[in-house]
Amino acid sequence: MTAIAATFRELRQRNEGGLIAYVMAGDPTPNFTVKIAAALIDGGADIVELGIPFSDPIADGPTLQRAGVRALLAGTTPKKVFDIAGEIKRVHDVPVIVMTYYNIVYQMGVEAFCSTAEKNGVNGVITPDLPVEEATLYKEIAMRYGLDTIFLAAQSTSEARLERLLHASSGFLYLISANGVTGARNILEEESIAFIKRTATSTRGRVPLAVGFGLSLQSHVSQVIDNGANAAIIGSAFSQIVEQNLGDSDQMLKMLRQRAQTLKRGLT
Predict the structure, then answer these.
(1) Alpha-carbon distance 51 to 57, whole Å?
(2) Which end of the chain is more exposed for a tag (fewer CB within 10 A), N or C?
(3) Which residue among 46, 60, 83, 148 is the active-site one?
(4) Helix (H, G, I), strand (E, B) or coil at 125
């Protein structure tokens, strides 16, 4: 059983939904990312997702795009992100996931990427721009290094393709709750709730379902769990706190911890 699978099993035993905290690695600096992750874990995050900053993101909204620019200007590289993962894992017993665009995997080489990830304690990888139809070799190599392969499904995903995604996904299936890119929203649309319910019937008993994109409030995470999901993924809401407190690191960490605590209460 992988670390991610074990975490979801423990959450089920406690009758809790999981909080997956996305952090743009390197924002505002590579060294400070470890402190950000620690604050979120202290606040209740069950899994940490580290984003590797990329110059041409296709899924990131304005908040995460700005975070990515700050991280790149701070000298963040894929190697430094793996170093950050290793530092987190040496102190915290939580799964760490890396989110990256496939160009970075391709440039490193799938074998080298997965080997480096495994050596630094990474438990799973999300590659939003890698079609499942072209991921056979990638999945084989990732499995050899004990890495869960997490694929994404959107509201436009057909039933046939959803079945293929479920077959290829391990760790969890990442459900995109809203059309468009990432970014905190004020409400969770009714069509999003219906989509979560519909997908949950397909994932139940097969792979955990985690919902992301647009979630920012305690009411959002409560809704996704109440409608069949196993975890909520929060990114832009945390990144906004980082951006708004770049001049006061103590306040930044305090607010991140408090926001994680508030969101986690919506999952219990």
Answers:
(1) 11
(2) N
(3) 60
(4) strand
Question: Catalytic one among 27, 46, 49, 148?
Answer: 49
Amino acid at 13: Q
Catalytic, 163? Answer: no
Distance CA 112, CA 128 (A): 19
Q: Say what the pTM is.
A: 0.95
Q: Are strands 96-99 and 124-126 parallel, antiparallel or unpaired?
A: parallel
Give the separation between CA 242 and CA 225, rounded to whole angstroms.
26
Domain ranges within the chain, ordered by starting residue = 3-265
CATH 3.65.10.10 fits 3-265, yes or no: no
DSSP class of 46 = S
**Annotated catalytic, 60?**
yes
Question: For 109-118, how does the pLDDT look when each residue is reduced to its tens digit (9 = 90+)?
Answer: 999 999 999 9
Q: What DSSP character marks residue 181?
A: S
Q: How far apart are CA 138 and CA 114, in angstroms?
A: 9
Contact 193, 222 (CB under 8 A): no
Tens digit of each residue's pLDDT (9 = 90 or more) over 177-189? 765 444 445 556 7
Residue among 149, 151, 260 at smallest CA distance from 215: 260
